[in-house]
Amino acid sequence: MRGRARTTVRVMAHTLVLLRHGQSQWNLDNLFTGWWDAELTDLGELEARQGGELLLEKGILPDVAHTSLQTRAIATANLALAACDRAWVPVRRHWRLNERHYGDLTGKDKAQTTAEYGEDQVHVWRRSYDVPPPPISESNRYDPINDPRYEHIPPELRPKAECLKDVVLRMLPYWFDGIIPDLAAGKTVLVAAHGNSLRALVKHLQGISDEEIPSLNIPTGQPLVYELGDDFRPLEEMSVTERYLADPEEVEAAARKVAEQGKAAHGAPTDGQEP
């Protein structure tokens, strides 16, 4: 009696590359940035190009890119794509990939803010998952509300300040409606964005708890690669660090560098996630 033929189900891998923008001028100046449009420094441009060169070296070539509406992410995508000979691929941009809105901290020096409000309070604003900083005031000259790139956003969706939980909630609709369709079409997708919008996506992909996600540092300019199944969840159980293309020691050193970003002579604490 002939046995029943075995059916093999082939799982299609969908490749997703996450790339945090390189160092910005406000990174260098030790200022809270958020939705303000700071440009890349020379180092930031170099980091972006090196990220693209690593993609070329590993043969991971994007078919489409997604970025926020902020210049530092757009420039990072452009430089990385050019470095891997993919400058011609389509690029889609959306405000839901923007950095976390730092409210009235926007434009403030990090060390001075700690001196004014105290280390404990600033730590809560920067590191807690669900406590936002004070909403941006009308007197804050760095309020992006009148920036023409945000004119199309309904007033009720324009943030005045955000915690990481808020970023997760506003980012996920774009993940489902904007990025997944490109992955489902078999495209290798590059997402060039920010420390917190990428943390929000990594939290979703890896099921990281609310308690653990604040300790995750995403280094600048280091491609983070996911192979996703047809359910758009990772095919392999791996840590975040294991998913970077660079050598683990190099990634750890870059993460430590990010974690020290913003530490000033005054001894101000830092979390490395404010861009």
Structure keywords:
275 residues; alpha/beta; Rossmann fold; 8 helices; disordered N terminus; 5-stranded mixed beta sheet
Structural description of this entry:
By secondary structure, the protein is of the alpha/beta class. The protein has one domain: Phosphoglycerate mutase-like (Rossmann fold, 3-Layer(aba) Sandwich). The protein is built from 8 helices and 5 strands, in the order βααβαβαααβαβα. The longest helix is centred in the middle third of the chain and has 21 residues. It is globular, with a radius of gyration of 19 Å. It starts with 13 loop residues before the first strand and ends in a 16-residue tail after the last helix. The N terminus and C terminus are likely disordered.
CATH superfamily: Phosphoglycerate mutase-like
Q: What percent of the residues sit in helical stretches (DSSP H or I)?
A: 25-40%
Architecture, according to CATH?
3-Layer(aba) Sandwich
Largest sheet: 5 strands, mixed
Q: Report the order of strands and helices.
A: EHHEHEHHHEHEH
From the helix content, strand content and strand pairing, which structural class follows? Answer: alpha/beta
Oligomer: single chain
